[in-house]
Every structure is written in C-alpha cells, then in structure tokens.
Design brief:
45% helix; 11 helices; binds NADP nicotinamide-adenine-dinucleotide phosphate; Rossmann fold; alpha/beta; 8-stranded mixed beta sheet; 12% strand
Length: 329
C-alpha cells in the first residue's frame, strides 16, 4: 500500500471536477428486455434494492433476493409476482453474520440455473462502531466482506456459465477513505470511529477487491463492475440515533433524489449491450468515472484480498492461475 504522500500526488483536479459534474447527470436508459434471465440481488426489501428489483422484474427477469427480513421478503414476493408475472424467490441471510453469508453463497453456488446478473446492494451506514458476533466491524462486514465472500465462492460457477455480470453498489463515499485503508486497524480499535470513514473504507475495500476479481474473471465472459447509485432517498441510517434520524428526515431527505435513477442505472449496467466485455470499471450511475487514487492501488488490492481470506477463513484459491496480474505486483 502506498503512503499518504504518494496518494496526494495522484489526486488530480480534473478528475474531481468530472466527478462533481457527473453527479448531476441522468442515467442512460436500456430498453432491452431480460425475459427469463435470473437476477440475484441483495437487500431488495428497501431503498435502491427494492426499486431495482421492481425495474428488473418489469423487464421480464426472474429474481432471487437475498434479504434478512422474512415478512418484508414475503410481501415483496407477493407484490412482484402479482404485478409483473415473474418469479421472485428469496434466500434469508443476515449479511452481518459470516456463517449466514457463507451459507447463502453456497446455496447460490449449488443453483443449477445460471445467474445472469448478481447485484451486491445490501448495505448499512452507522455513526457508532458496532461489532458483529464474529468480531468484525459491522459496516466492513455488510458493505464489503459479504460481497467478497459471495463473489469468491461463486468464481467457479460464474466462470463455468461463460457469461454473467456482477455489479457492486458502491459509492462516491469511497472517497472518504482518502488516504487508503488502515490495514493495521480494519476493525477500528486504534482510532476514533467515524461513520463516514468506516463507510468509505468498506466501499474502498470493495473497489480494491474488484481489481483482483476482474483478473479472476478475465476471458471468461464474466464481468464485474461497481457503481455509485446517486444520492437518493432511502431508509439508510435508520439504525442510528435520534439526532441522525432527525437530520436525515428533515435535511438530507429533502435534497436527495428518487431511487428510480439508481434502478435505471443498475438495469442499464446489467442489461445493456454497451457493457458487453466491460469489466473492472467504476460508474457514477451509468457514466464511467475514475475512482479515487487509493481505489487503483494494485498492491493494496492484493493486500486486502489476503487480509479478507485471513478474516473469513476461506480456502485460498490458486490466485496465480486465477489472477495472473498478481505476478506483476
Ligand atoms: N442512498 C444513497 O444515497 C446511497 C448512495 C451511495 C451508495 N448507496 C448504497 O446503496 C446500497 C443500498 O442502500 P440504500 O440507500 O437503498 O439503503 P436502505 O434503504 O437502508 O436499504 C438497505 C438494504 O440492505 C438490507 N440490509 C441491511 N443490513 C443488512 C444485513 N445485515 N443483512 C441483510 N440485508 C441487510 C436492508 O434490509 P432491511 O429492509 O431488512 O433493512 C435493505 O434491504 C448500500 O450499499 C449503500 O451503501 C446508497
């Protein structure tokens, strides 16, 4: 991983200005249908995931949702199947539990049907540090490690399909981890916890993992991309205290956009022919964008990969065979 001073040199004003301009763009729209395709999406019971599930269903895709709430999942199934005539199944998993994440990944791996689009959307924003029963900082677990484990355990299945798109709902918030990851303190034990920085670190870790997954999927017909879904009005932050919720409801929500733009963008990235063969990219809605310098640090990408294997206890895959780029680091 590079030093702060090296990252400082890599920040450049035109990229930042482009990002600011991109924030006011509308997403490109895809009119192609996905009849009978299978789309797996996490966190479909609320916000961006809910709007995206409806968008894909409206275009003929069958859904397999990964949700934690049984009642909301049943309501969603009833609503989507009734309204769009597609299948909307669900797997229950609390993505803050390592055991449940591994179990859900194994269920996905054993599916006989191909997964055409896999969308990692579930997420949480916390203003106070919370530790999961596995001893992992919760935002890091839900926002990053859950997607890492699922992708990792699905590498062989997705490659064997010969075609699939993985999309990670990331965020411009990865820029809050402006000087990279603190590998010596991924669990926020040595520093004062910051909601924005922990969120940024988890999103940055996900972008770094994309560098390695892209290599794993090279020439297999499988792509992996990440996107910022816009600043949109959702249920995010509801786990925080009354002050934050007041601020969210009375100030933030008034300036946030509707989730249609996120759903439209996620549909375009999953369905449009324009994205054929495009992998390892970060999009602001549907506009390709250069992420912050720490998200392009190849050495940090392999470091977080190794660290993630260590934390999750997953068996190492032959990374030299799967990701030949590693030899160049
Ligand atoms: N809103 C924005 O402006 C914005 C901007 C950039 C990025 N994002 C990203 O967009 C994604 C979706 O967020 P959102 O804004 O739509 O928030 P949201 O309305 O709170 O939706 C979050 C979804 O994730 C699920 N979820 C949360 N914790 C979970 C857990 N431990 N296990 C399983 N599922 C869990 C929630 O389930 P329940 O329904 O059971 O709570 C819900 O379905 C997140 O990755 C977020 O970081 C959002």
């Amino acid at each position: 991983m590079k030093k702060k001073s090296q990252y400082i040199k890599e920040y450049n004003v035109p990229d930042i200005l482009r990002m600011i301009r991109n924030n006011s763009l509308k997403p490109k729209v895809c009119a192609e249908k996905l009849n009978g395709k299978l789309v797996v999406i996490s966190g479909a019971t609320s916000g961006i995931g809910y709007a995206t599930a409806r968008k894909y269903a409206s275009q003929g895709a069958n859904l397999l949702c990964i949700n934690r709430n049984p009642r909301k999942s049943k309501d969603l199934k009833r609503e989507i199947e009734g309204e769009f005539g597609v299948k909307c199944d669900f797997l229950l998993a609390d993505l803050s539990s390592m055991k449940e994440v591994v179990q859900v990944a194994e269920k996905l791996r054993s599916l006989r049907t191909p997964i055409d689009v896999l969308i990692h959307n579930a997420g949480v924003y916390l203003t106070k540090r919370d530790i999961t029963p596995d001893g992992i900082e919760k935002v890091f677990m839900v926002q990053y490690l859950a997607s890492f484990v699922i992708n990792y355990l699905l590498v062989d299945k997705l490659k064997s399909q010969g075609k699939a798109r993985v999309i990670m709902v990331n965020s411009e918030g990865h820029r809050f981890a402006a000087w990279g990851l603190r590998f010596d303190d991924l669990n926020w034990e040595k520093r004062r916890y910051s909601g924005l920085k922990s969120y940024g670190s988890a999103k940055l870790a996900q972008l770094l993992s994309m560098i390695v997954f892209k290599e794993c999927f090279k020439n297999s017909g499988v792509s992996i991309n990440a996107m910022h879904p816009g600043a949109v009005k959702t249920e995010t932050g509801q786990d925080n205290g009354p002050m934050y919720r007041w601020y969210k409801r009375n100030i933030l929500d008034r300036i946030l956009k509707p989730t249609d733009i996120s759903a439209e963008a996620l549909y375009y990235l999953g369905a449009s022919d324009d994205l054929e063969g495009v992998s390892g990219k970060f999009f602001n809605l549907t506009k390709e964008e250069v992420p912050a310098p720490p998200a392009l640090d190849m050495e940090a990408a392999f470091e977080i990969w190794d660290k993630s294997l260590e934390i999750t206890g997953l068996p190492e895959m032959d990374i030299h065979e799967q990701a030949p780029e590693r030899n160049a680091v």
